[in-house]
Amino acid sequence: MSFPKPFYRWRPHPWHxxxxxxxxxxxxxxxxEITPFDLVKYEIDKSTGYLCVxxxxxSSSQHPALYGFVPRTFCGARVCALSPKAKRGDSDPLDIxxxxxxxxxxxxxxxxxxxxxGLQMVDHDEADDKIIAVLENDxxxxxxxxxxxxxxxxVERLQHYFMTYKFVPGSENNVSIEKVYGAxxxxxxxxxxxxxxxxxxxx
Length: 203
Fold this sequence. Notes:
The structure is a single chain. By secondary structure, the protein is an alpha+beta fold. The chain is built from 3 helices and 10 strands; from the N terminus they run E-E-E-E-H-E-E-E-E-E-H-E-H. The strands form 2 sheets. It has a 5-stranded mixed barrel. A two-stranded antiparallel ribbon has the order 2-3.
């Protein structure tokens, strides 16, 4: 896979030009694409690095946390190997949900997040894991170490969102969440995605 034509002479590309974080996989940088206030799904344009409108939400679904991706990660063969029901990785950067006690109502921001768990999601046979993290130094959530430390209802809301945000009545739902996992497995997924990125794009 060839590295995309540079577009970060003046501004670093959010996927390829930002750093994954010095303390990865325990703590990572997250580039935020969507906030809990958004009724539109935004997604990074991989060639330019600009945030684009992917689609308006069809239903009343709203993301229950900050949502984005971890720079310099890639969901390829190693991430797929950690997801038994998947046939391949989704070839995107690793998705991450970041929980913050204080409302953050703007996207295109970079946050540092502590990895505490994740959702093993499979979308049309592709590994599409969602890492769950808490905002580092958050006064309420910042001391958490594992997913079990979070209120169960927050995890349920994340599961419900990802199981329904693409749902169209009368059509087949090809999304499944195979398991919810804690910090140890989440860190393994982050590491796998970093290694997949190095293989796809070089260090």
